[in-house]
TrEMBL record:
InterPro entries: Thioredoxin-like_fold, Thioredoxin-like_sf. This is Thiol-disulfide oxidoreductase. SUPFAM superfamilies: Thioredoxin-like. Belongs to the thioredoxin family. DsbA subfamily.
Length: 224
């Protein structure tokens, strides 16, 4: 499944060359300005990514591990979270058969801002905020300006019960931005991520698929 977002292809080309970097500053958006200027500037390999919290659902000792790589600005990912993921959760994650890990993909700075909002409430609120972001994607991601997009993301944060000061601190956490980008680069390189959504099932990468196709793979592994 190809990303239909042109920025995605550009960003991934930079990542493939080991040359995606970010500089930060406070711009008109009221959020940290995320720049992806080209191949000449590389993300520092010295960024410590050990502080990034893995967002996990399900039994830590489940027999199957599924990692989803998704972008908050990807329509196919929004569709997967409306149709595929709830069924996986009901039949495999909640039943202790699958340990599910969600990892953000950063095709553009808007996706980074959405990630900052999703992570702002900590592990307990992450998946709930993620659901809100995907459900409202058609609205917030299509605003006419970056400032308007950020304002919509702020609304999602407030809807999730966060205060204004907390939201602004998260949106302007430049250290977190650098860490998340380096973390994403490392993960994308390890698993060869070049489209969203992508799934890594017990170490093997798969592109987007239907629930029935997914269930067939999982059932085969479970011997069912």
């Amino acid at each position: 499944m190809k990303s239909i977002l042109p920025a995605g292809a550009v960003a991934l080309a930079m990542i493939a060359g080991g040359a995606w970097y970010m500089t930060q500053g406070t711009g008109q958006t009221g959020a940290a300005d995320v720049r992806l200027p080209g191949a000449a500037q590389a993300q520092s390999p010295d960024v410590d990514t050990s502080t990034v919290v893995e967002m996990v659902k399900g039994d830590a000792d489940a027999p199957i591990e599924v990692i989803e790589y998704a972008s908050y600005t990807c329509p196919h990912c929004a569709s997967a979270h409306a149709n595929l993921i709830p069924k996986l959760e009901e039949n495999y994650i909640d039943t202790g058969k699958v340990k599910f890990i969600y990892r953000e993909v950063y095709f553009d700075k808007v996706g980074v801002w959405a990630s900052l909002i999703a992570r702002c409430g900590g592990e307990e609120k992450f998946f709930g905020i993620t659901d809100l972001i995907y459900k409202g994607q058609q609205d917030w991601a299509r605003k006419g300006s970056e400032a308007a997009v950020v304002d919509e993301l702020r609304k999602i944060g407030r809807l999730a019960g966060m205060e204004g000061d907390q939201i602004e601190a998260c949106l302007n956490d430049t250290a977190q931005i650098s860490t998340l980008v380096a973390w994403y680069q490392k993960n994308a390189s390890e698993h060869g991520i070049n489209s969203t959504p992508s799934f890594v099932i017990d170490g093997k990468k798969y592109t987007n698929m239907s629930y029935d196709e997914f269930a067939e793979i999982l059932d085969d592994k479970l011997g069912e």
